Amino acid sequence: MTHQPALSALAATDPRIAELVEDEAQRQHDKIRLIASENYVSQAVLEATGTVLTNKYSEGYAGRRYYEGQQFVDPIETLAIERAKALFGVDHANVQPYSGSPANLAAYLAFAQPGDTVLGMALPDGGHLTHGWSVSATGKWFNPVRYGVRKETGRVDFDQVRDLARQHRPKLIFCGGTAIPRTIDFPKFAEIAREVDAVLVADIAHIAGLVAGGAHPSPVGHAQVITTTTHKTLRGPRGAMILSDADHAKAVDKAVFPGLQGGPHNHTTAAIAVALGEAQQPSFAEYAHAIVANAKALADALVERGYDLVSGGTDNHLLLIDLTNKAVPGKPAAQALDRAGIELNYNTVPFDPRKPFDPSGIRLGASAITTRGLRPEHQPQVAEWIDRTVTAAAAQDEAALGTIAAEIREFLTPFPIPGYSA
């Protein structure tokens, strides 16, 4: 088994790095990868990412660059933009942000001033660092106000959102986040934003592929500004986009460049264009719905085994599990699962009494396993391995973890991954 495309030049020049890349490819092949923010890109996306486009510098926008030699870069970026606009049904798309955090920072730069009030979801309740959390620049440079979820339901408390918005009159309201297992009610957020004359920013980094594939409602027509990464459920390279209506387009572009960034990463732009082209195919809609079906099946199987899922289940790709009733915290559980061949992350849960670096929960998602071809009928087996591992972690039974890892490697043999083949 070897990495594809082949690493012959890398192996000759730097065999140690080549060896580590090969090891990582095998690790990705041998494990059930349930990290909600990860996926497998296609070989076409991998090839685009590794092209000579990485040699080219392209400050500015198509037709308005600060360097010559853009005859082929401009059409690539234009293709990415047009595909993003068509896929999501938006007036404007900027495909230059380096990642999701800079994309969110661009929204602040475009529509707020330092010290302005912003309203975002609290990080422990499922929000993102850049929605105004205290350790982020967004929490230090702006006046953050935070909403959360109801303790009894694990869902957004819209009474609280409306009360805070009326009281504090924020310039920006963020909806979306990193650990939200339920459908985001974009119309309700939009109603509140209109009432206080705030710009609504929908951060759909986790669910962009589900939105594109029709497996989650779209924020288009509700949020004036939409930010997203291009990996996760969208199954593209590590990059980001900002989508907007026509009225907010100029401010978005100015905030990205020259406001925050220099030249875009052209090899990433090309790979984004490829991924967006793939997402326009009918098979991608099937994939998006299959993600949700797998996540729901895994949620049901875990609930049957006595696991406490935040909000009771999932509507999308993501599950958030409170392990308090399993006698093992999230961090040692996640580490044991990794040794057993199941990759996910430890995570805070709403109203978590434990510290963020040693929380009560784990977060998992179904995007990558769906790309590999796992189906709902496989999820009870995945849940059984998770349960056995958590039980072994609580009992400090290391031998059991090796047994489970071997079972998983054998199970995954018929499910190939892009970028690694015999």
From TrEMBL:
<comment type="pathway">
    <text>One-carbon metabolism; tetrahydrofolate interconversion.</text>
</comment>
<dbReference type="InterPro" id="IPR039429">
    <property type="entry name" value="SHMT-like_dom"/>
</dbReference>
<dbReference type="InterPro" id="IPR015421">
    <property type="entry name" value="PyrdxlP-dep_Trfase_major"/>
</dbReference>
<keyword id="KW-0663">Pyridoxal phosphate</keyword>
<comment type="pathway">
    <text>Amino-acid biosynthesis; glycine biosynthesis; glycine from L-serine: step 1/1.</text>
</comment>
<comment type="similarity">
    <text>Belongs to the SHMT family.</text>
</comment>
<comment type="function">
    <text>Catalyzes the reversible interconversion of serine and glycine with tetrahydrofolate (THF) serving as the one-carbon carrier. This reaction serves as the major source of one-carbon groups required for the biosynthesis of purines, thymidylate, methionine, and other important biomolecules. Also exhibits THF-independent aldolase activity toward beta-hydroxyamino acids, producing glycine and aldehydes, via a retro-aldol mechanism. Thus, is able to catalyze the cleavage of L-allo-threonine.</text>
</comment>
<feature type="domain" description="Serine hydroxymethyltransferase-like">
    <location>
        <begin position="11"/>
        <end position="386"/>
    </location>
</feature>
<dbReference type="InterPro" id="IPR015422">
    <property type="entry name" value="PyrdxlP-dep_Trfase_small"/>
</dbReference>
<dbReference type="GO" id="GO:0017000">
    <property type="term" value="P:antibiotic biosynthetic process"/>
</dbReference>
<feature type="modified residue" description="N6-(pyridoxal phosphate)lysine">
    <location>
        <position position="232"/>
    </location>
</feature>
<dbReference type="GO" id="GO:0030170">
    <property type="term" value="F:pyridoxal phosphate binding"/>
</dbReference>
<feature type="site" description="Plays an important role in substrate specificity">
    <location>
        <position position="231"/>
    </location>
</feature>
<dbReference type="GO" id="GO:0004372">
    <property type="term" value="F:glycine hydroxymethyltransferase activity"/>
</dbReference>
<keyword id="KW-0045">Antibiotic biosynthesis</keyword>
<dbReference type="GO" id="GO:0005829">
    <property type="term" value="C:cytosol"/>
</dbReference>
<dbReference type="GO" id="GO:0008168">
    <property type="term" value="F:methyltransferase activity"/>
</dbReference>
<dbReference type="GO" id="GO:0035999">
    <property type="term" value="P:tetrahydrofolate interconversion"/>
</dbReference>
<feature type="binding site">
    <location>
        <position position="123"/>
    </location>
    <ligand>
        <name>(6S)-5,6,7,8-tetrahydrofolate</name>
    </ligand>
</feature>
<protein>
    <recommendedName>
        <fullName>Serine hydroxymethyltransferase</fullName>
        <ecNumber>2.1.2.1</ecNumber>
    </recommendedName>
</protein>
<dbReference type="GO" id="GO:0019264">
    <property type="term" value="P:glycine biosynthetic process from serine"/>
</dbReference>
<dbReference type="InterPro" id="IPR001085">
    <property type="entry name" value="Ser_HO-MeTrfase"/>
</dbReference>
<dbReference type="GO" id="GO:0042803">
    <property type="term" value="F:protein homodimerization activity"/>
</dbReference>
<keyword id="KW-0554">One-carbon metabolism</keyword>
<keyword id="KW-0963">Cytoplasm</keyword>
<dbReference type="GO" id="GO:0032259">
    <property type="term" value="P:methylation"/>
</dbReference>
<comment type="subunit">
    <text>Homodimer.</text>
</comment>
<feature type="binding site">
    <location>
        <begin position="127"/>
        <end position="129"/>
    </location>
    <ligand>
        <name>(6S)-5,6,7,8-tetrahydrofolate</name>
    </ligand>
</feature>
<dbReference type="Pfam" id="PF00464">
    <property type="entry name" value="SHMT"/>
</dbReference>
<dbReference type="InterPro" id="IPR049943">
    <property type="entry name" value="Ser_HO-MeTrfase-like"/>
</dbReference>
<keyword id="KW-0028">Amino-acid biosynthesis</keyword>
<dbReference type="InterPro" id="IPR015424">
    <property type="entry name" value="PyrdxlP-dep_Trfase"/>
</dbReference>
<keyword id="KW-0808">Transferase</keyword>
<keyword id="KW-0489">Methyltransferase</keyword>
<dbReference type="InterPro" id="IPR019798">
    <property type="entry name" value="Ser_HO-MeTrfase_PLP_BS"/>
</dbReference>
